[in-house]
Amino acid sequence: MKKTPTGKGKGSTPATMQLERAAVAFTLYEYHHSTDHMDGGYGVEAAEKLGIDPRQVFKTLIADTGTKRVVAVVPVSGHVDLKALAAAVHEKKASMADTTVAQRESGYVVGGISPFGQKTRHETVLDESALAYDMILVSGGKRGFDIGVDPRDLVTVLHAMTARIGTW
Fold first, then answer.
1. In the chain, what are the domains?
2. pTM of the full predicted structure?
3. Out of 1-5, 8-12, 108-112, 160-164, which region has the weakest mean confidence (pLDDT)?
4. Taking residues 107-124, what's their average pLDDT?
5. Is residue 81 left, alpha or beta, with left meaning phi > 0 and alpha meaning psi from -120 to 50?
6. Pairwise CA distance, residues 34 & 75, whole Å
7. How many CA atoms lie less than 13 Å away from 129 in the CB half-sphere?
C-alpha cells in the first residue's frame, strides 16, 4: 500500500523526520509484516508484499572495521561484500556488527534499520547499482514500513559514497 508522507503520527519516524528536514521528496510504503515469512529476510518480504523488484529494494546493514562502524546499503536480492566495503572506506577488513550494537547505535530494531535518522552517525556506502533507478526502497525505521527515495537524494542527505559493495 502506498501512502504520502504526513510528517506526523503513524508515518513519522526519525528516518522520515530527517528527510522532511532536508526537504527531500519520498513516498511511504506500508505492509503487514509477518513473522511466518522470514525465510528470505525482511527486505525480500517487503519486495514480495509490495510487488517491487528486489533489486530496487535495499537493506541497511552495519559493519565493523575494527576502528569504526560503517553503514552498508545493498539490494535485498544479494549480500554485502565485506572486503569491498572495507576497501571503499579505506580499511583492511570488515565484519558484520553485533546485532545488539547495530540496534543500539541505529536506534532501530533489526528488520527496521533505516539508513536515515540513526542515533549514531556513521559513514555510509550505497551500492552503486542503486544509481540505475530513479527510486529505491529502504527501511523507514520499523518492520513493515519502507521509504521510496531517489538514491541520489540518499547520497546527498547522508553524505554517502557509492561503490560496488553488493554481490549476487
1. 2-167 (3.90.960.10)
2. 0.90
3. 1-5
4. 96
5. beta
6. 20
7. 22
C-alpha cell at 134: 530513479
Query: Rounded to whole angstroms, how far apart are CA atoms 166 and 168?
Result: 7
User: Among candidates 70, 66, 69, which has minimal Cα distance to 124?
Assistant: 70
The three state secondary structure string of the chain is: CEECCCCCHHHCCHHHHHHHHCCCCCEEEECCCCHHHCCCCHHHHHHHHHCCCHHHEEEEEEEECCCCEEEEEEECCCEECHHHHHHHCCCCCCEECCHHHHHHHHCCCCCCCCCCCCCCCCEEEEEHHHHHCCCEEEEEEECCEEEEECHHHHHHHHCCEEECCEEC
Residue 151 has pLDDT above 90, yes or no: yes
What residues contact residue 86 under an 8 Å CB cut-off, 6+ apart?
A: 63, 65, 92, 93, 94
Please state the separation of Cα 89 from the chain's center in Å: 18
Distances (CA, A) of 103 to 31, 39, 62, 97, 111: 22, 21, 9, 10, 10
Provide the terminal-to-terminal Cα distance of the chain, rounded to the nearest Å.
28
Whose cell is 503487514? That residue is: 32
